[in-house]
Fold this sequence. Notes:
A: mainly alpha; 9 helices
Amino acid sequence: xxxxxxxxxxxxxxxxxxxxxxxxxxxxxxxxxxxxxxxxxxxxxxxxxxxxxxxxxxxxxxxxxxxxxxxxxxxxxxxxxxxxxxxxxxxxxxxxxxxxxxxxxxxxxxxxxxxxxxxxxxxxxxxxxxxxxxxxxxxxxxxxxxxxxxxxxxxxxxxxxxxxxxxxxxxxxxxxxxxxxxxxxxxxxxxxxxxxxxxxxxxxxxxxxxxxxxxxxxxxxxxxxxxxxxxxxxxxxxxxxxxxxxxxxxxxxxxxxxxxxxxxxxx
Amino acid sequence: xxxxxxxxxxxxxxxxxxxxxxxxxxxxxxxxxxxxxxxxxxxxxxxxxxxxxxxxxxxxxxxxxxxxxxxxxxxxxxxxxxxxxxxxxxxxxxxxxxxxxxxxxxxxxxxxxxxxxxxxxxxxxxxxxxxxxxxxxxxxxxxxxxxxxxxxxxxxxxxxxxxxxxxxxxxxxxxxxxxxxxxxxxxxxxxxxxxxxxxxxxxxxxxxxxxxxxxxxxxxxxxxxxxxxxxxxxxxxxxxxxxxxxxxxxxxxxxxxxxxxxxxxxx
Lengths: 267, 267
């Protein structure tokens, strides 16, 4: 019994330590963010942020778009198979439009970015740690949080919401294609129904979620890199851990945000 | 007044004492070699001097500032006066050699890009890499990487040059060339040089004074001749390359004891 309690206690302390480290890193990055901003900051940081935006955003675009199109089709088909029985096919439009703007667009994007960029952050920083490049930065009076993390975080904050919007559009387009081929619904009419079914609030809640997901992905990925100990094998472990933890935390955060928005609407 | 003054420095990892009350003064313009075997604590001492780790107790004063207790601003000022070449060179693999050298100039000075290019070329020329600036670190040989790391360390014309195992892993000719380069740099730039090494020929070629470490303590501090003629048994063992009697260590004795004591039973 004592052993079980000891193990639970040790695990709890370890998890609290992780959350504490994430918070400390987040505040340190927010303080250093000014240096990555255009015009007022350091131009090399801004250039690094732009390079990161291309990697996080532009390079992920085909993957995110394809995932959104497939998921749009799946959602429309699954919805239609049930709603057809009740003669409520037009609700498929609401299901796809509201489902994507509030939920699926940001979530799919976050999962894709977590797999691509979260792992890449962990591998890059982990490798730099193993090869003493982080120590080298420190002795050059360059703080790794400002030099590495701030541009990555700024890039994620801009890229992930943009990708989410593109994901929403692709998912809704896929729903429109399904409706056209299954019910011969005029595409223009479909988009009028889509605009009727979603409100600005849906788009804003989706974007708020995207910003939160970007924060989780950037910080978990970088923290896993900073926590690398030992040799190249631990870089591999930290990469895996970055994807697993950020995906898990994204889904938890999504549940929390959805609950908050749900109860806010009811009240 | 010494440029670096270490007083009663104690470092512990997980309760294990690594450095045990070290005191050492390093004077302006001298080359101090920290000599010692593997695990003697010389790299740990170096990390303390570079403030990459904090000691359990004691102080390290660099140019009159106690770096174990100073503010971040003071620490940055101290780091600007340090140039460091790590054992692994720790060049940034994503940057070309010239960008590696230019990094601190871009970050810490307001020099025009054309002037930075000129300074970078001069620093690379000093170490014999004037024609290799466009290459990336992975395209360089081991000796060239070390020289590129020295060029980067020299970028801001530091008062103190710190070299961690500069000749480790190099063939004797390249190692000797690097020794001559260190002597040349000291003569030209009049800088204080700290070299961590376990290579005896290199240590006795470049040192003004040698501090020899064993089990986290200094067992000899003095000029080359004083160390060379030392009668301390550990110093003599190191200088005369006398191996430990492996069979006297308990782990080895336990494993090989039966073979070493009763060889006839296994014939």
